[in-house]
Amino acid sequence: MDKPLMELKNVDMYYYKKSGLFKPKIPIGAAVGINMTINEGEIAALVGESGGGKTTIGNIVAGLLKPTSGEVLFEGKNIYKMTRAEFRKYRHSVQLVQQDSYASLNPVHTIEHSLVGPILSRKIVKNRKEALQKVKEALLRVELSPPEMFLEKYPHQLSGGQRQRILMARAILMNPKLIIADEPVSMIDVSLRIAILNLMSRLNREMNIAFLYITHDLATARYIAQNGSITVLYLGKIVETGRTATVLERPAHPYLQALLSAVPVPDPDIESRKRKLPLKSVDMPSVAKPPSGCRFHPRCPYADEKCSIEEPELIPFNGRLCACHHVETIPEWSYLE
Amino acid sequence: MENLVEIRDLTIDFPLRAGTIRAVNHVDLDIPKGKVTALVGESGSGKSTLASAIIGLVSVPGKIVSGQILYKGRDVLKMDNRELNKYRWKEVSMVFQAAQNSLNPVMTIREQFLETARIHMENYDESAALKRISELLGYVRLEANRVLDSYPHELSGGMKQRVMIAFSLLLDPQMIILDEPTTALDVITQDYIFNILKRIHEEMGITMFLQTHDIAVVAKVAERMGVMYAGYLVEIGGIRDMFYNAAHPYTKQLLQAAPSLLDELKERKPIMGTPPDPYNMPKGCPFHPRCIHAKPICEEQIPQMVDVAPDHKVMCHLYL
User: Fold this and answer.
1) How many distinct structural domains can be found in chain B?
2) In this predicted model, what pLDDT tens digit does every residue of B258-293 receive, in sequence order?
3) ABC transporter domain: from which residue to which, for each copy (chain A) (predicted)?
4) CB A192 to CB B255 under 8 A?
């Protein structure tokens, strides 16, 4: 039975934008009505385009952003009602790995300094000798071998892929139950991406660490979360969520269908036969002024009047949840014509 | 097949404090007229440097050490400034990486278009120029009335990129160079822009030269593909030959490493190792430290470019 590790319950995150000296501030719903569960040992992908709210949700799960309303539960407990000790444990158990590996490491510290420091100060190890031993083990786990070669280096002396592995090592040193990986491969060369994704899958299998993989890239989401779940965001709301295999095989929401049609496939013969979905408009509306009703309706080829008035709820459909009024009637979708 | 551009033995060096980087290494490349040729490579492979050299622009401190770039038989590298001014935009135009930032933030789109038209158009006439500009904006599916009076910050990234594509067409060039034209844009916008470019290519017969790191984009738009690695052009051929009969081990592995929405997930394999340090290039074939087929000769000699099929060349000892 799946055991929930992190849960978001009716989470809203509003930012407030100044509109003028004496005018009221405008609320911007970066994430609205989010319900999400990440189970122990699961790989969950969170996908969406820029402005979708994926990084906001990642930061809420990491405890870096307190939502405007709603509950964030870790192992069933609200993280904002925890005792200090409980909150500390949660913070250790949930680690964040960000996109820019260069910005995440102090440029004037050696790798040894950056990795030994956190586990010493958080008393995960007793002394420096034990810390060094642990760090070496972690470096081996992320396939940086021999570890001694990397300890003395500064971040600028490593490649992007190696720095991203260092960040993974720093995360696993805290013995986490969940690693939030926010676009971890988007700044890495194509030839090295699969290797980092494979490393994450291995850490998931061998150490039973759950991953929340945040990306705009559906192909890598499909690759890493093949046995896990996927959640698709559009302008701050979840439009579709379920098992990755189910959702990507027969996408139900018109936005996801459009997104999948737009992803190029590295095969010229398939590419020439791929299905197109005629959107009414290419340009995404601003998050500050989301459209009424269904947020996708101005671009959706299937939208009618109801869509512009009433906001759709996430409802079960064919083994997943989908927020679309016409999910039952829109034609079935496939990749090829 | 007639070639619009023929690059011969082109070598570009960047003398830097820590040593000299050879960004482009003795490259021979033909760009046939009326086709879409794509150049694939990872960051630092030299594809952008090569593309900029075609319009006579190599960023400081880059130096062209050897070679020729022949455009319709004339060497671009020997043109003087006056000739270059006629050649750029009118013969070959370029849409730069993050072209969104190529627009002047304090001028409206209308002013920027007119400025370019005034400087480059023969027999400049404002109303004729504006008519042409509106036509082009319509072509990239922008509302001319709205866009012309906007400042760049009032447009989205995708709209700015479409403005830049319209710009590149202003003087009816024979060829457009597109250097990563959709980086930093969302998937749906990227797809839309490539559909527009495909239509421009088909309807106007414009030659296109695209640089990208994304092999899937190449499958969508290109007719020919070249692969660059560490400054070398390692393989070039027709798109189907390259995807279904790739010869160079790097090309093969690059194709295997690209995640796709439609494939067997188990077939994806990473390429071992990392690209070489540009200050400290390996002896012999630049790919040999990562190559599963490397032989002793690969560590000693740089392989020659050889034909493996008609219009399909590869630089690898396996085929010598």
Assistant:
1) 1
2) 888 887 777 788 888 888 888 889 999 999 999 999
3) 8-260
4) no
